[in-house]
Automatic annotation (TrEMBL):
Signal peptide: 1-28
Keywords, ordered alphabetically: Signal
Pfam family, one: Phenol_MetA_deg
Lineage summary: Bacteria, Pseudomonadati, Nitrospirota, Nitrospiria, Nitrospirales
Name the record gives this protein: Transporter
Length: 354
């Protein structure tokens, strides 16, 4: 195998959301979450004229907590109804597979432009209004994120990169389920409105060409969509290191990181109902369509994420990272399970037009 040069090695090291009437058939509030790890080639600013392309695959399953279930509400944003319920949800599950094209371009040696295009596959066994589960599936381009980044502390051994991203609502948020009604917002491909995502990335080579430390913090705020649904703010914090374990194998890098995510409760403009599974009817509790918190949304999640990075004969680099839950509180909703991220990074020389 071709020996990794100092430049290739630095790239590898850095690469590392009381009236009674007929019951509507609506999906239960079983949100889809995403696996999140630090891939340094996404966060750094490439040198002027360099285009870094990442092809990333995320596999993120979610299931009901073992031995628990029930009390997950129906969030029907189409009819502006929030319906409290107490149904067995142990058979509800969600699987999100995301293929992401991430392009990172150096406008100058300190200023970069990043465009992230996700393509999502969502599969779920969704709880319906009559207490039965039914399959649900959707796929398509999600919300595209455009980020401007500035390296405020460029040195040979360290960098501090500030980023400001904007989520463009390109993803579909009007997909219907098998009942013909809108699937709940958390199962949609897109969020339906603009989001703002500031971020801060830091890395430092503790031992040049052998040991690299990194940290990442970002925060997402998404505005209320036309259906009156607003996804809760999200905070992600990550800390880790990359190490070349053997001097004789500079093409092999091990990555270890700890990831923490806090998500605020969602809210929606809706009237409040209660669902009676015996009568299969809803009972109106409050007919005022006002902003209400969606119960069982919001979560905290702590994960340990080990992985490997490989230099593919100096042509590109590949990585595979597992995200293992350590502590999690999904507020009675579906919990993110063992997840995986894999991908390939390739750099191209594309002269700037300036």
């Amino acid at each position: 195998m071709k020996r990794c040069t100092g430049t290739h090695l630095r790239v590898l090291l850095a690469g590392v959301t009381l009236a009674m009437g007929p019951a509507p058939l609506v999906q239960a509030s079983c949100g889809a979450v995403s696996c999140f790890v630090v891939i340094g080639s996404q966060q750094q600013v490439p040198q002027k004229g360099l285009l870094t392309v990442n092809g990333i695959f995320n596999y993120t399953p979610s299931e009901a907590p073992p031995g628990e279930g029930g009390s997950i509400p129906f969030a029907n944003q189409g009819n502006k109804q929030l319906i409290l319920a107490n149904l067995n949800v142990n058979q509800i599950r969600t699987l999100v597979r995301t293929y992401t094209l991430d392009m990172n371009y150096g406008l100058t040696d300190r200023l970069g432009l990043q465009v992230t295009i996700p393509y999502k596959f969502v599969h779920a066994d969704a709880q319906l209004g009559l207490g039965t589960s039914a399959p649900y599936a959707d796929r398509g381009i999600g919300d595209i994120r455009v980020t401007m980044k500035y390296n405020v502390l460029p040195t040979l051994r360290s960098m501090v990169v500030f980023g400001l991203g904007v989520d463009i609502p390109t993803g579909d948020y009007r997909q219907t389920g098998s009942t013909g009604q809108l699937a709940e917002s958390t199962l949609q491909i897109g969020r339906g409105n603009v989001g703002v995502v500031p971020s801060l990335y830091q890395s430092y080579e503790i031992i040049p060409h052998r040991l690299n430390q990194f940290a990442l913090a970002n925060y997402r705020h998404t505005y209320r969509n036309p259906d009156g649904y607003q996804f809760g703010d999200e905070l992600n914090l990550s800390l880790g290191f990359n190490i070349v374990p053997f001097e004789s194998t500079p093409w092999l890098v091990l990555t270890q990181q700890v990831n923490y995510r806090w998500v605020q409760q969602d809210s929606m403009e809706a009237a409040l109902y209660a669902f009676d599974p015996v009568l299969s009817r809803t009972i109106l509790l409050d007919g005022n369509i006002i902003d209400r918190k969606v119960p069982t949304t919001g979560s905290t999640y702590l994960a340990y994420s080990p992985g490997i990075l490989l230099n593919l004969w100096g042509y590109a680099s590949a990585y595979f990272i597992a995200q293992i839950p350590v502590a999690r509180d999904f507020n009675g909703n579906l919990e993110q399970q063992l997840s995986f991220v894999g991908g390939i990074t390739k750099t191209f020389n594309v002269p700037t037009p300036f």
